[in-house]
Structure formats: structure tokens, C-alpha cells
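Can anyone check this?
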Amino acid sequence: MEYVKIAVGALETNCYLVYCSETLECAVVDPGAEGEKIKKTIGENNLRPVSVLNTHGHVDHVGANKDIIEFYDIPLYIHSADKVMLDCVSRTDLSLLLGAKDSPPPDFLLEDGNEVKIGRSVLKVIHTPGHSEGSVSFLAETFLISGDTLFCGGVGRTDLPGGSWQKLMDSIKSKILVLPGDLPVLPGHGPITTVEREKTENPYIG
């Protein structure tokens, strides 16, 4: 499984096109803004979208769900605890800045341990609450998409509804830092890092 990283919107959210190298089927992970930019990149890489996956329900990660889902006629996956956020995307403070639109309802509700098929490959769902109650990470054989749970040198904020510092730290320490040290971590914002780098250098992780 491979990926293409696209920074979208004023908050430079990382949208990932995660694809099977054999079939070129892809999942669009966190289309937060700039739907046209995402569609252009999909076309340039000859990919065939089969799903939209949200790591969580915050507006900067779901703002272009509608554009992508309706254009490609594909299903939406999000954790059950963040489903409610999709109903009020256009009423958040950031919606105007990001050009966000209310998302279609999810077709599938994710839970810990689920597997999402993409071509001949799969992403494993790891429930990593803390940034939001329904935050998830997606684990492939060769990388982890961590959403806004873990960043390069940082961690997700916990002062928004559904946030919890204790849950965030537990998610990071018990579910992410136990993975192989050389595993690349693809965060929701900023540069790519590794499990080992965050374990040894991240100042928020004691």
C-alpha cells in the first residue's frame, strides 16, 4: 500500500490518498478542504477512489467530504462517536474560512479493530480517542495515519468538545508507541515522523 500526501485549506490539513499499488484503488483520508485540488491529484495519479475515511469529525478534516463523495459516488467511513459532528460542519467558526460544506451521513461506522479494504490491501482501524471521542488512526503494513492524535513533535489539542488529555496520552502510549519504531507516522498536519522519533523526542510525551 502506498500514499500521496496533499496539504489542503488554510490550516494545511494533510489529506492522504491511500492506494493499492496493484489495483490503484484508493481511499481519500480526511478531505478537509479544496476538493478540486484533491480531485486533480487523484486524476494525475490515475487512482480510482473507493471510499472516504475520516480520522475524526472536525471541520478541517471533513470540509470537502461532500465534494469527493458526490463526485465519485463512494461511501463514507467515520467512528460512531464523531458521527454527530458531520451534521453541523457549516455552522462552525472555521467553515467559512475553509469553504466547508455539511457532510453526507456516513455509510459505515468504524470501531476499533475494523479493517477497511482498499484493492488487495487493508487498513486496520485503531480507536485513539483524546483529540475527539471518535478519533481513529489507520494502520497499514508500512505506515500509520494518526490524524490529530500525534504530530511530529506535538500532540492533538484536547480543549475542544470530546477532548481528554488523559485519553489522548493513553491512546498515544498504549496504541501508537507500541508499534515498530521505524514505522512512519503520517499526521493530520505537518511533516511525517516515526514512532521512535516521537517516543524519544516528543516533549509532550513523558
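Reply from J.R.: I decoded it. Residues 165-176 form the longest helix (12 residues).
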